[in-house]
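Sample pair:
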Amino acid sequence: MDLKTIKNLLNLISESDVNEVEIEEGDFKIKIKKQADTIYKGGSSPIYMGSPQGIGHQALNPAQTPVAQPSTGTAPTASEAGDKLITVHSPIVGTFYTAPSPDSDPYIKIGDSVSKGDVLCIIEAMKIMNEIESEHSGKIVKTLVENGQPVEFDQPLFLIEPA
């Protein structure tokens, strides 16, 4: 099941009265709940599981894409970045990679021009490599995440100056 299909499924569920759905397709399994459950993991902050109706949280399963939450200090403010820059946010929780493999060149570098649909990076979640595509055309001004760094849902990844 691809990321777009999962997003469509989440939208359908969020608009319905269904509170929980579980789907199995071969080895792939997804469980979506509208109400968030808090889980504490080894002395860290709480990790929340849920769905688009839940509070801002970190998903343990990449298929459980949560709603937008306020960013925590990683993105420049409007005055720092300028009102004209577009911030690209992570659509899922996972590990950020700049290239398709360790030996490959990065998808993009600062100063590169990108078009809508160009691959910007990969976010690995549960051994699935998810290509993150640009939703805007423009020039890459800044990369806000280091290669191999874990990212959270809605964490800012790039700043793009619109074309």
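The helical segments are 3-14, 78-81.
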